[in-house]
Amino acid sequence: MSILIDGNSRVIVQGFTGREGSFHAAQMIEYGTRVVGGVTPGKGGQLHLERPVFNTVAEAVRETGADVSVIFVPAAFAADAIIEAALSAVRLIVCISEGVPALDMVKVKSFLGTTRSRLIGPNCPGIISPGKCKVGIMPARIHRPGRVGIVSRSGTLTYVAVDQISGEGLGQSTCIGIGGDPIIGTSFVDALELFAADEQTAAVVMIGEIGGSMEEQAAETIGRGFAKPVLSFIAGQTAPPGRRMGHAGAIISGGRGTAAEKMAVLRRHGVHVVENPAEIGRAAKKILGRVPG
Amino acid sequence: MKIHEYQAKELFARHGIAVPRGEMAETAEKALAVAETLGYPCVVKAQVHAGGRGKAGGVKLARDRAEAERHISAILGMNLISQQTGPEGRRVRRLLVEQGLDIARELYLAILLDREREMPVIIASSQGGMEIEAVAREHPDAVFKVHVHPATGLFPGHARSLAFRLGLGRVQQQSFAALLTRLHDLFLQFDASLVEINPLIVTRGDEVLALDAKVNFDDNALGRHPDIAALRDLDEEEPLEVEASKYDLNYIRLDGTIGCMVNGAGLAMATMDIIHFHGGEPANFLDIGGATSAERVQEAFKILLADPNVRAVLVNIFGGIVRTDRVAGGIVAAARGLDIRIPVVIRLAGTNEEEGLRILRDSGLNFITETSLSDAVRRVVDLAKGA
């Protein structure tokens, strides 16, 4: 198994005919993802990448049976796109768009709580279950199927970690980039719960960063009893307070959300914390070596 | 994005939030004229984007014309050094001159986004005029919080519960409720990330006014508020950061000696961490994102090299969708147009890395190339130390 997506997932692309949407849809199709169509309002009825374009998500879902949507629309329209997907009962919504206003996300999160849809992102690379399905913008080449579950707030740093882990001869069950914004659809805790229930996943690598308290919440979840070993790296150990380090969510404010604080809490709850990001692969190998099977 | 106190107060006044009478001045003559019009006592306040102005000598009460003249000449043009400005301080280019008021009580009021609860939270305290973090630490029972759910918005109960806990009288309660409603509207309308009034004062005449005003905005929403974006004061920002923002480069200047150029914010932070791990100090955070064009790489190099503290540069690129041979081509083209006199260590990994490294080596430029992140960092740390 893997989590959230597999070879049966039927994926539509919102913002299908745009530059980003087209490029990454083509990459996903090349990987073997079942991209069954896309949505661009006003272009319904056309064919794009040999797949049907629809005016609305509702129509796309009705015609294709899609259960997953990936969003590439400009940030100002991202909330609208997410809400439309949730109204059409899309099970998994992956929002790649970067720069979504925080108050838009307040409304979106509140609304999603009344639906059965799960959101990943925004401002994220997406999700991949290697060998089965890729819904996002990550380079497929570096991934290989295996038993490590990866969840991360960043993009390129995750690719570096995946590359190291694959380089050690280890594969991944599912890798989720949850996004670098202050308010996001799926948290570390959510991802951990999904990995806990997944048979394929034997260990979890969690890549956090400064800002917020999602890592601390994850630590508490792990402390209450998490059967699989967890390895963690927190980016921003040397970041100055009060400065936003690229991601809108990566900011130490009021002396809270520091890497040191997060690392201490994670260690206290039994998480193996690596300080040097060049060592993630080797540390994963060591930990997985101790897991039976 | 931050704005000045005087700009925040203009915004408040336009939205019906009571503020003291006053005016911004960029010259001593204008400032004195404002003081003379307002009468005495009046207050002279330095306008910089940093807190702790009072302690730093940037806020003074003038009881007569002579005192006003003295304070104006002392504060205008001063280099204000507070905890928030860093040791280099901030030059005061503007003053706000305001009427002095007869203060009965100083309170605290703020609205910000609670990331954990995923909704705005109102924070109020009966102990205004002090740093709220300190009040929360020492008198946690004097800090009150209520969340505002997006489905309900602000209800009279929000203001009522806070007003009672703040110990406001009946007349004051009504003014407070009106002010809170307008402040909350303003927070939502302009996509603020923080509105803070410290202190919010109650006068002996039962008026409730914002004696100070701080408003920060969500950078991601500035596109839909051009009038707010126009309030940005570039003088208050680090010049190299302003330059970087013109090219959509995400640059933050730090005080180490190793210039960093990285693709991706998380990887850029991790690169700083690993430099530190090997005993070096990063001179900056720089995320070039998916930028691979020679022009943007060149601008990034220019910005790194403009920092006189930089002794060596580390370029750390992980090519995913972005091919490293393209990035290498961009780096070579950028470097040819510049006179780089310090060592540049380039770590390229990912898609087409062999080709990328070959392009760098064959360029005839004096790059040091590495494929391992640890080796690259060790090398640049040694070079920055002059080894």
Q: Give the amount of beta strand of chain A, in percent.
A: 15-25%
What is the CATH first-level class name of the largest domain in chain B? Alpha Beta
Total beta strands of chain A: 14
Alpha carbon gap, first and last residue of chain B: 41 Å
Which outline of chain A best applies?
globular
Task: State mean pLDDT of chain B (0 to 100 scale).
Answer: 93
The CATH H-level homologous superfamily of the largest domain in chain A: Succinyl-CoA synthetase domains
Percentage of helical residues of chain B?
A: 25-40%
Mind telling me which CATH architecture of the largest domain in chain B this is?
2-Layer Sandwich
Number of strands of chain B: 18
The radius of gyration over CA of chain A amounts to 18 Å
Structural class per helix/strand content of chain A?
Answer: alpha/beta
What would CATH call the homologous superfamily of the largest domain in chain B?
ATP-grasp fold, B domain
Instruction: Count every helix of chain A, treating DSSP H or I runs of 4 or more residues as helices.
Output: 9
Provide the gyration radius of chain B in Å. 26 Å
Q: State the CATH class of the largest domain in chain A.
A: Alpha Beta
- Work out the count of structural domains of chain A: 2
Q: Kindly report the greatest chain-chain contact and the residue count on each side.
A: A-B, 61 and 52 residues
Tell me the major beta sheet of chain A.
7 strands, mixed
Write out key terms for the chains shown.
heterodimer; A: about 290 residues; alpha/beta; Rossmann fold; 7-stranded mixed beta sheet; B: about 375 residues; alpha+beta; D-amino Acid Aminotransferase, Chain A, domain 1; Dna Ligase, domain 1; about 35% helix; about 25% strand
Structure description:
The complex is a heterodimer of chains A (293) and B (387). By secondary structure, chain A is an alpha/beta fold. Chain A has helices at 19-31, 57-64, 78-87, 102-112, 156-167, 188-196, 214-223, 259-268, 280-289, and strands spanning 10-14, 34-39, 47-48, 51-54, 68-71, 92-95, 118-120, 126-129, 133-136, 145-152, 172-177, 203-209, 230-235, 272-273. Chain A has 2 domains: 10-120, Rossmann fold (3-Layer(aba) Sandwich); 138-289, 3-Layer(aba) Sandwich (Rossmann fold). In chain A, 32% of the residues lie in helices and 22% in strands. In chain A, strand 13, helix 8 (259-268) and strand 14 (272-273) form a beta-alpha-beta unit. In chain A, helix 3 (78-87) packs parallel to helix 4 (102-112) and helix 5 (156-167) packs across helix 9. Chain B has 387 residues and is α+β, with helices and mostly antiparallel strands. Chain B has 3 domains: 1-20 and 102-237, D-amino Acid Aminotransferase, Chain A, domain 1, CATH 3.30.470; 21-100, Dna Ligase, domain 1; 238-384, Rossmann fold, CATH 3.40.50. In chain B, 37% of the residues lie in helices and 25% in strands. Chain B has helices at 5-14, 28-38, 65-75, 132-138, 156-166, 170-189, 226-229, 239-246, 265-277, 294-305, 324-336, 353-362, 373-384; strands spanning 22-25, 42-46, 59-62, 79-80, 90-91, 95-99, 103-114, 119-125, 143-147, 192-203, 208-210, 214-217, 250-253, 258-262, 284-287, 312-319, 344-350, 367-370. In chain B, strands 7, 8, 9, 10, 11 and 12 form a 6-stranded antiparallel β-sheet that branches. Chain B has a 4-stranded antiparallel β-sheet with strand order 1-6-2-3, with helices on one face. A 4-stranded parallel β-sheet of chain B has the order 14-16-17-18, sandwiched between helices. In chain B, helix 11 (324-336) links the parallel strand 16 and strand 17 (344-350). In chain B, helix 5 crosses helix 6. The longest helix of chain B is centred in the middle third of the chain and has 20 residues, at 170-189. Chains A and B meet through helix 4 and helix 5 of A and helix 9 and helix 13 of B.
